[in-house]
């Protein structure tokens, strides 16, 4: 044991079986352990992550640039399309103008040809008479023949100028004729008249309409379009008006709005005769939703409130009640609302009627020219928005008025049937039932 203490230290990996191969090693300490190599893999991961983030940022920027370029390209194509449409429209108008000019030019050429032919015939007759009347014994015949021929040859340009001046005079005298007709035509009733003493300040407050033996014709000498029409529409009642073509459906609107004065009878609105009320005072309390929506170029605000009588809150309230989706009241509206769909234009008209807060709503085929999906949307908006109003709906599609309180059936300007749809469908020989059966048959 003592002899082993003088041997040098052995490496731990060496065996003691062969002492001759002992190798002297330095003492093992913590400082002599080899240091681990640097973590190359982690550094690569960090560098790869930074590169990927830069790539993502570059791709995002490139996508944003491409999106902007695509948006500019779309706007440019849209402007180009509008420009091409405008050029096509101008070309169409130019073609129409050229067609009219071509007809005018052809008529002038044909007139000139006929006048030239008439002048030539006069000159030929003068020449023939000079030859027939020629006599060797008469010395004056040569002078008379020369004078007659010279005057005959001047007839042609004189005829041309005379006919041209006469036609221009007749054309320009049309303006005089129009002025004479305007000065002698009947004067329209006054626009504003103070309400009768028995009318409430908030007239009309209920919306009851009463027609009493109304006769209407559009012009003296024409047949009557309403013949002794009598009907009473209660307040807040929903009435559907149906009938064949020429039955007088639209004439009800004409009579109620006083576009044409009735020949006899009377129309009362909440007990007040509308003939004793000014035209503007009457029409501002009645709202019309036409079959073809009428919009003006400008903004949504201008189309809803052209006279700036209502606040923005009232306009937005009407828009929401009409279920119209808009981002701003200053959204542009093209001429005739061409930048809006037909359903949106109809909803704008509904919102305009809501802004007026009228008690009477007249709808002349309000959903006749739109698809069934938009029709259901508009009908739903109408039912919700005008629940407290008196509504008259002129309809050809009978399914739109099947939920009305009563249906008015017109024939030759007279009220033939006026009752609820369920009762009319149960009657034998009912015109309304025959119309419903005919439309059902056509749809199937």
Automatic annotation (TrEMBL):
Transmembrane segments: none annotated. It is found in: Vacuole membrane. Keywords: ATP-binding, Membrane, Nucleotide-binding, Repeat, Transmembrane, Transmembrane helix, Transport. Gene3D superfamilies: ABC transporter type 1, transmembrane domain (1.20.1560.10), P-loop containing nucleotide triphosphate hydrolases (3.40.50.300). The keyword Transmembrane helix applies. It is a multi-pass membrane protein. GO terms for cellular component: vacuolar membrane. Residues 14-33, 40-54 have a biased composition (Polar residues). GO terms for molecular function: ATP binding; ATP hydrolysis activity; ATPase-coupled transmembrane transporter activity. The keyword Nucleotide-binding applies. Pfam families: ABC_tran (PF00005). Residues 211-437 form the ABC transporter domain. It comes from the Eukaryota. Residues 1-54 are annotated as: Disordered. InterPro entries: AAA+_ATPase (IPR003593), ABC1_TM_sf (IPR036640), ABC_transporter-like_ATP-bd (IPR003439), ABC_transporter-like_CS (IPR017871), ABC_transporter_C-like (IPR050173), P-loop_NTPase (IPR027417). Belongs to the ABC transporter superfamily. ABCC family. Conjugate transporter (TC 3.A.1.208) subfamily. This is ATP-binding Cassette (ABC) Superfamily.
């Amino acid at each position: 044991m003592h002899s082993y203490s003088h041997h040098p230290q052995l490496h731990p990996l060496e065996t003691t079986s062969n002492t001759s191969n002992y190798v002297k090693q330095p003492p093992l300490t913590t400082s002599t352990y080899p240091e681990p190599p640097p973590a190359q893999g982690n550094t690569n991961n960090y560098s790869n992550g930074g590169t990927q983030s830069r790539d993502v940022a570059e791709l995002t920027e490139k996508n944003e640039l491409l999106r902007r370029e695509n948006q500019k390209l779309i706007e440019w194509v849209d402007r180009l399309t509008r420009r091409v449409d405008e050029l096509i429209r101008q070309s169409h108008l130019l073609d129409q103008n050229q067609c009219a000019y071509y007809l005018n030019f052809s008529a002038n050429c044909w007139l000139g040809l006929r006048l030239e032919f008439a002048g030539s015939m006069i000159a030929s007759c003068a020449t023939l008479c000079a030859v027939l009347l020629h006599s060797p014994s008469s010395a004056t015949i040569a002078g008379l023949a020369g004078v007659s021929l010279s005057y005959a040859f001047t007839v042609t340009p004189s005829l041309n100028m005379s006919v041209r001046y006469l036609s221009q005079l007749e054309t320009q005298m049309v303006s005089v004729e129009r002025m004479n007709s305007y000065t002698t035509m009947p004067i329209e009733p006054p626009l504003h008249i103070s309400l009768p003493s028995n009318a409430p300040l908030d007239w009309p407050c209920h919306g009851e309409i009463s027609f009493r033996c109304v006769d209407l014709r559009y012009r003296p000498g024409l047949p009557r379009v309403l013949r002794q029409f009598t009907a009473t529409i209660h307040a807040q009642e929903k009435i559907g008006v149906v009938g064949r073509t020429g039955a007088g459906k639209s004439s009800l609107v004409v009579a109620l709005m006083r576009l044409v004065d009735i020949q006899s009878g009377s129309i009362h609105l909440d007990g007040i005769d509308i003939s004793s009320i000014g035209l503007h005072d009457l029409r501002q309390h009645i709202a019309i939703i036409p079959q073809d929506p009428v919009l003006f170029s400008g903004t949504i605000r201008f189309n809803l409130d052209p006279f700036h009588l209502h606040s923005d809150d009232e306009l937005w309230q009407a828009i929401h009640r009409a279920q119209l989706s808009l981002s701003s009241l200053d959204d542009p509206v093209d001429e005739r609302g061409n930048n809006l769909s037909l359903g949106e234009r109809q909803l704008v008209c509904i919102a305009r009627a809501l802004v007026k807060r009228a008690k009477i709503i007249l709808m002349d085929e309000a959903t006749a020219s739109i698809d069934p999906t938009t029709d259901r949307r508009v009908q739903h908006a109408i039912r919700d928005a005008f629940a407290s109003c008196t509504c008259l709906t002129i309809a050809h599609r009978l399914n739109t008025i099947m939920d009305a309180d009563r249906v008015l059936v017109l024939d030759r300007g007279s009220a033939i049937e006026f009752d609820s749809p369920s009762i009319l469908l149960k009657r034998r020989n009912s015109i309304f039932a025959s119309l419903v059966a005919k439309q059902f048959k056509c749809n199937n």
